[in-house]
């Protein structure tokens, strides 16, 4: 397959899927089938892209045939390819899951077209090699997610959506201003060209100042300290499939943008910029997990954990050593899998017990041991217990930090881990072991605690959960190939000349 | 509000506006104009009709649901890029087809035109979806 096709497919497939779903606006059943097929195709395209990038090196496709740095190149390096593949995986699992859980009303108001347009925005953000184009993909993604979060028009949803929209619009405004300033300084917005031109500027402080604007803007999207408050205020309001999708992907796009910008472009004064990143990473970890400790609603609790884990993803970027950066990327991958799964499982528990409140969930373990086992795997993976994926992600990160003698951040990371474990244990004891009040007084509403049997809906709900749980275990047991792939990824990131050469050298 | 003057004027204005929107669309091929601005003018024609008469008759005149128009437009615009991919070119690299039409001279057609017509339809669809929905509230 030609490289142009491979690089374009992760964007074209969701576009085509979304458009076909829109053409069948009146037929829900057809839309559901199209959505599932499109998501599966995206996963396959992602895997094909990753295999090709690993074999051939960085792939570049100049959109419209205009050569870089004048046109907009789409660049797939290992980081982009890994994240695109993960997007495909999350898309596939959540698309299956939403077949079972999405209500007909939301489905007939265009849930599936929006779902795929959102995926297109995410894949576009991961693949673009142009700053302004990145802004455009952000907008595609945000507009789709605004509607997805508000779709259904419940009171809480609208409240959450307003906070989400407001904060993200501010972030976009800052990003646009920063892009304007950057263009004023460098005269280009092509990322590779920027990386080349900004390495030896006369006034590095000016570039650093612009870099800080990017940090604020991407930071709001990634929900880092102190700009995370919109996330727990909005993520628990939409249906669980939407929450799982945005939780897995949106903030990771912010993290990706930070990694890209601060390895390729803003590396003039790393002593200053990356020190800030390190402090922010530590504070994000601690505040996120402390927020989670206070929560008793599963979705809110998990939302706070998203924030805490964004911190881990920044540590490697702040330290800028191959091992630590590989640890951070491992953490992104691991987190996409586990966090999505925890949301999906809490959605399944909601389906069976009718609540997200830990106190009312009752003794799930007694009635549904299989769900409990699946939850246990994901929760322990999130907390970083061996042999699950989280353990090796943390181990790589901690070893990478120790190698360069950043002891404080290691201490913070391990402290946060303990609190995460505590928080997961809290869900386990409250939601899975302790009988609820209603249960003790024999006042359970009929239907609760009974198992509806393996009908097609239950299959659509549990197959994704089982796939993701198996991956959590698999990435832990077969950690070696994953880590070696990610170290390759990190080394490629820390050698910006490879990226620059692939993009700019293309024209000659 | 039903105004005889507005209704009479609208009947002839709508035709002119629609023609003008198509003129802008085609002119955008080589000169200022294009699908976006053409689409806005086209949408304005339907909006004017909705104001002068009522929303239902504007919908009847459109003859197709705005959602469907958006979908068809997106399919055309996105499809223009996919044609290039099938020809082993980068996404959205525009392909040209030159031909001689007897009595008209040489014309050149490109996938670009397909893209622009797609944009034209999407803009009309989105604008009317918003305007017609809001005026029905």
The SSE order of chain A reads: HHEEHHHHHHHHHHHHHHHHHHHHH
Count of helix runs of chain A = 23
Mean pLDDT across all residues of chain A, rounded?
90
| Major interchain interface with per-chain residue totals | A-B, 22 and 19 residues
Largest sheet of chain B: 2 strands, antiparallel
Oligomer state equals: heterodimer
What is the makeup of the main sheet of chain A?
Answer: 2 strands, antiparallel
Q: What is the count of structural domains of chain B?
A: 1
Give the strand content of chain B. Answer: 5-15%
Helix-residue proportion of chain B: over 70%
Overall structural class of chain A, as computed from helix and strand content, comes to mainly alpha
The SS-based structural class of chain B is mainly alpha
Q: Which blocks of ≥5 consecutive residues of chain A have pLDDT under 50?
A: none
Run of helices and strands of chain B: HHHHEEH
Which strands sit side by side, in order, in the main sheet of chain B? 1-2
First-last Cα distance of chain A:
23 Å
Q: What is the CA-atom radius of gyration of chain A, in angstroms?
A: 22 Å
Continuous helix count of chain B: 5
Identify the notable features of this structure and list them briefly.
heterodimer, A: 508 residues, mainly alpha, 78% helix, globular, B: 137 residues, two-stranded antiparallel ribbon, 2 strands
Strand-helix topology:
The complex is a heterodimer of chains A (508) and B (137).
Chain A: H1 3-23, H2 28-56, E1 59-62, E2 73-76, H3 78-101, H4 104-108, H5 111-127, H6 131-150, H7 155-186, H8 191-197, H9 204-222, H10 230-234, H11 240-265, H12 270-293, H13 298-319, H14 322-353, H15 358-361, H16 364-367, H17 369-383, H18 389-403, H19 407-433, H20 437-440, H21 456-477, H22 479-493, H23 496-504
Antiparallel strand pairs in A: 1-2
Helix pairs in contact in A: 1-2, 1-5, 2-3, 2-5, 3-5, 3-11, 3-14, 3-21, 5-6, 5-11, 6-7, 6-11, 7-9, 8-23, 9-11, 11-13, 11-14, 12-13, 12-19, 13-14, 13-18, 13-19, 14-17, 14-18, 14-21, 14-22, 17-19, 17-21, 18-19, 18-21
Chain B: H1 4-27, H2 35-52, H3 55-62, H4 66-86, E1 96-101, E2 105-110, H5 111-136
Antiparallel strand pairs in B: 1-2
């Amino acid at each position: 397959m030609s490289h142009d096709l491979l690089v374009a497919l992760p964007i074209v497939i969701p576009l085509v899927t979304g458009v076909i779903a829109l053409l069948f606006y009146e037929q829900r059943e057809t839309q559901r089938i199209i959505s599932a097929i499109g998501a599966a195709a995206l996963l396959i395209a992602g895997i094909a892209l990753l295999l090709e990038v690993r074999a051939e090196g960085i792939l570049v496709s100049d959109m419209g045939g205009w050569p870089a740095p004048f046109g907009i190149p789409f660049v797939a390096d290992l980081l982009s390819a890994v994240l695109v593949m993960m997007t495909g995986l999350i898309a596939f699992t959540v698309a299956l899951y939403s077949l079972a859980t999405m209500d007909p009303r939301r489905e007939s108001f265009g849930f599936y077209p929006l779902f795929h347009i959102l995926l297109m925005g995410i894949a576009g953000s991961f693949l673009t090699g142009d700053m302004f184009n990145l802004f455009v993909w952000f907008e595609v993604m945000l507009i789709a997610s605004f509607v997805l979060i508000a779709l259904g028009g419940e009171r809480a949803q609208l409240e959450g959506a307003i906070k989400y929209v407001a904060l993200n619009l501010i972030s976009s405004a800052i990003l646009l201003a920063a892009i304007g300033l950057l263009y004023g300084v460098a005269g280009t917005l092509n990322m590779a060209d920027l990386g080349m031109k900004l390495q030896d500027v006369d006034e590095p402080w000016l570039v650093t100042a612009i870099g800080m604007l990017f940090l604020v803007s991407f930071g709001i999207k990634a929900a880092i300290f102190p700009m995370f408050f919109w996330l727990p205020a909005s993520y628990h309001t939409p249906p669980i499939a939407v929450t799982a999708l945005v939780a897995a992907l949106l903030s990771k796009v912010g993290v990706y943008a930070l990694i890209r910008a601060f390895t390729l472009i803003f590396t003039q004064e790393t002593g200053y910029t990356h020190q800030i990143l390190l402090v922010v990473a530590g504070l994000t970890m601690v505040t996120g997990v402390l927020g989670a400790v206070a929560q008793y609603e599963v979705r809110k609790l998990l939302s706070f954990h998203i924030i805490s884990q964004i911190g881990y993803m920044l540590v490697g970027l702040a330290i800028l050593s191959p091992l630590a950066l590989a640890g951070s990327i491992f953490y992104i991958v691991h987190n996409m899998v586990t966090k999505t799964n925890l949301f999906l499982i809490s959605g399944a528990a909601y389906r069976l017990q009718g609540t997200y409140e830990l106190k009312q969930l009752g003794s799930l373990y007694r009635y549904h041991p299989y769900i409990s086992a699946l939850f246990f795997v994901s929760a322990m993976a999130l907390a970083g217990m061996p042999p699950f994926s989280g353990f090796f992600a943390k181990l790589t990160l901690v070893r990478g930090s120790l190698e360069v003698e950043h002891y404080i951040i290691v201490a913070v990371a391990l402290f946060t881990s303990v609190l995460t474990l505590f928080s997961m244990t809290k869900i386990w004891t409250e939601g899975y072991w302790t009988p609820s009040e209603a249960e003790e007084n024999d006042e359970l509403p009929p239907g609760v605690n009974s198992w509806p049997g393996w009908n097609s809906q239950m299959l659509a709900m549990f197959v994704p959960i089982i796939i993701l749980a198996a991956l959590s275990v698999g990435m832990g047991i077969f950690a070696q190939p994953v880590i070696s792939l990610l170290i390759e990824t990190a080394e490629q990131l820390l050698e910006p000349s490879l990226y620059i050469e692939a993009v700019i050298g293309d024209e000659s | 509000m039903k105004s005889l003057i507005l209704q009479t004027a609208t009947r002839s204005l709508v035709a002119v506006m629609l023609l003008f929107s198509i003129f802008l669309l085609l002119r955008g091929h080589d000169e200022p104009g294009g699908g976006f601005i053409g689409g806005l003018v086209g949408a304005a024609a339907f909006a004017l009709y909705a104001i002068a008469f009522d929303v239902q008759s504007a919908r009847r005149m459109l003859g197709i649901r705005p959602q469907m128009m958006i979908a068809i437009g997106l399919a055309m615009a996105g499809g223009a890029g996919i044609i290039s991919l099938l020809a082993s070119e980068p996404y959205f690299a525009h392909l040209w087809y030159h031909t001689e039409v007897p009595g008209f001279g040489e014309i050149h057609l490109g996938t670009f035109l397909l893209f622009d017509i797609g944009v034209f339809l999407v803009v009309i669809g989105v604008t009317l979806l918003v305007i017609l929905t809001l005026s029905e509230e």
